[in-house]
Design brief:
By secondary structure, the protein is α/β, with parallel strands linked by helices. The chain has 2 domains: 200 residues, Quinone Oxidoreductase, Chain A, domain 1 (Alpha-Beta Complex), CATH 3.90.180.10; 141 residues, NAD(P)-binding Rossmann-like Domain (Rossmann fold). The chain is built from 9 helices and 18 strands. The strands form 3 sheets. Strands 3, 5, 6, 9, 10, 17 and 18 form a 7-stranded mixed beta sheet that branches. Strands 13-12-11-14-15-16 form a 6-stranded parallel beta sheet, sandwiched between helices. Strands 1-2-7-8-4 form a 5-stranded mixed barrel. Helix 2 crosses helix 3 and helix 5 packs parallel to helix 6. The chain starts with a strand and ends with a strand.
Length: 373
């Protein structure tokens, strides 16, 4: 069948609207009619050329929610009409990592950037004019319809509106988990969050829910600093230097208990600044995405070891999507987790490129494609 989608024809390039052709779902696969998709910064890395798609054309989108239209043959556990949140990290349930409950490190995740199937990077379900079209993390949620593996699909209750649940597929789980898992935020802590996009806003909520006494946001965009308090920030500053000084004020000159790096494009200086902002024994959680090429980072090695500081990489908040989605869904249903408020602008699938222009202009916390507009 045909679907309208936002795809990259070149990288660097902008997302363009075109028709894609979808294959029928095979065993272990679902065809999903999208209700909504978040505009995550990770997709933009492919548009800017920071990351290169393995195959072009390339359909963006990895943060989606929708309704099952078709179920592949011999695929138990799903039926037409089920409501689905798609998670960008597939979880096979059988590999070394999944067997330890670390589904965010599933071996299939290593293949997800291929644009093909999680278990077969050379097999595609989307095409444009007869050419294979890659799907971002095997999902391609910038399309009215998509075909996905059940290893990336989480079934959610039908009594919860799907629209904003798409954010649970990446940004919210990643940011919230960055605070409670990677940064190990505890009651009374002082926490710095560098970057107030969708992941940063979720990290702020995670830190606040964990009982942090002070949650300090850093973002150069005034609009985002003004929004930060709505998600639980106690203060906001334009620079990390100001935020670190405020953290030292609260901690007898020691520094923050943890700093969570959620900037849009990770730079070496961000890691340097974050490490210098935390106290002895403090944690730096590096959630932001940068280049995969080796780059030099200035780190005071004596301070790192003798002050027992920790730099920790973060993928999907360092927890399983099949744990995070139901827990965060329960928080949302109880009114404790803010999802609707995170979406500052909504777009049609034809407006994806404009959505990313708005993101670069600093006027979005999270943009969202509403496929039902």
């Amino acid at each position: 069948m045909e679907s309208t989608a936002a795809v990259l024809l070149t990288s660097p390039g902008e997302f363009q609207t075109t028709k894609v052709t979808l294959d029928e779902p095979r065993q272990g696969e679902l065809m999903i009619r999208l209700v909504a998709s978040g505009l995550c910064h990770s997709d933009d890395h492919y548009a800017t050329g920071d990351l290169q798609p393995k195959v072009l054309p390339f359909c963006g989108g990895h943060e989606g929610a929708g309704v099952v239209e078709k179920v592949g043959p011999n695929t138990p556990g799903f039926e037409v009409g089920d409501h689905i949140v798609m998670t960008f990290m597939p979880a096979c349930g059988r590999c070394f990592w999944c067997s330890q409950g670390k589904q965010e490190l599933c071996d299939n995740g290593a293949q997800s950037e291929s644009g093909g199937r999680p278990d077969d990077p050379n097999s595609y379900r989307m095409s444009v004019d007869g050419k294979p079209c890659g799907q971002m993390t095997g999902l391609g949620t910038f399309s009215q319809y998509t075909v996905v593996s059940t290893t990336s699909a989480y079934k959610v209750p039908k009594d919860v509106p799907l629209k904003y649940l798409c954010l649970l597929g990446c940004g919210v789980g990643t940011g919230y988990g960055s605070a409670i898992n990677a940064a190990d935020v505890r009651p009374g802590h002082t926490v710095i969050v560098m970057g107030m996009g969708g992941i940063g806003a979720s990290a702020v909520q995670g830190a606040a829910h964990a009982g942090a006494a002070n949650v300090i946001v850093v973002d150069p965009a005034e609009f985002k600093r003004e929004m930060a308090a709505e998600f639980g920030a106690t203060e906001s500053f334009a620079t990390i230097e100001e935020a670190a000084e405020k953290a030292r004020h609260y901690t007898n000159g020691q520094g923050a208990d943890s700093t969570i790096v959620t900037v849009g494009r990770l730079q070496p200086q961000n890691v340097t600044d974050a490490l210098e902002s935390v106290r002895k024994g403090g944690n730096v959680a590096v959630t932001a995405v940068g280049t995969f090429d080796p780059v030099p980072v200035d780190i005071n090695l004596g301070m790192l070891s003798m002050m027992q500081k920790t730099i920790k990489g973060v993928i999907f908040g360092n927890w399983s999507p099949f744990v995070s989605v139901p827990r965060l869904l329960d928080l949302y249903r109880s009114g404790k987790l803010k999802l609707d408020e995170m979406v500052t602008r909504e777009y049609t699938v034809e407006q994806v490129a404009q959505g990313y222009r708005d993101m670069h202009a600093g006027i979005n916390v999270r943009g969202l494609i509403d496929f039902e507009k």
